Amino acid sequence: MKFLLTTKNLRKKITVLDILFDSHIDEKIKHIKSAGFDGVVINLNENEAPTETIEAVRQNGLVVQNLHLPYSRINDLWVNGTSGTEMIRGFMKQIEFAHAHKVPIVVLHITSGNIPPLLSEVGIERIKQIIAFCEDHGVLLALENLRRLDYLLEVYDRCESDFLSFCFDIGHANALTGNLYEFPWKNFSSKLCCFHLHDNDGSSDQHLIPFMGNIDWGKIIPYIFSLKKDIPITIETYLLDWSKSFYTNMFSKDNFEAEFFKKTYQAALAIESYLNE
Length: 277
Ligand SMILES: [Zn+2]
Prior knowledge:
The chain contains 9 helices and 8 strands. The chain has 277 residues and is an alpha/beta fold. Helix 5 links the parallel strand 5 and strand 6. Helix 1 runs parallel beside helix 9. It is globular and about 50 Å long. It starts with 12 loop residues before the first strand and ends with a helix. Bound molecules: zinc ion. The site of zinc ion has 4 residues, from loops.
């Protein structure tokens, strides 16, 4: 792994607050701050409105770049019935929460898996409701690429709004759609507002620290960052069950989380160095 550390530190570097390491929130914030990050993204569970977490993050001088809306039953979006209706109501509460706490972006998945329910009018109408709610509350809705880009394309085609945006997940394009270097940017670049940067070996969605999988970062980074000005470097790594053993010999057992965030921050600097050349 080659890290070029001759960076000018121009862009905000952001990490996921909870990489799924079992530690207290104050510990997480401490490690993220001392690694050098400027801010975090916060993943929300259903009905979660983490005021205290946001306050603690900000008290430590970190920004909250976005909130990731929950997605455990996101396919219900496309199906008539109370589950989808309730889910939308929950999203609206969380968008209201983002507005109240001045978080500018919420990220949303709109499908799960290879074969979600059929694309439906009820789904499009619900997305239109969410967009209208975002417009009223001044919060950007960033849809994220997973497996089914056709659903995203249909939504972008049918829903016109300055508040409808796009979060490009580099790892998903590498492993889930396999089109990272031929991504259909003509349909997405004008909507771009944030990145999810993480790595994998192309076989599955591993959320590894950048430079630990097979993504050609030197090739892709200058291109995707040229599509829109001033997008932060947001790293979306997780400590998934299988990756605990992947990292075992890389970080010490007693200081795992601190070392993990330090390595992740180095990767963010290396990514930035491709933008300064
Ligand atoms: Zn992502």
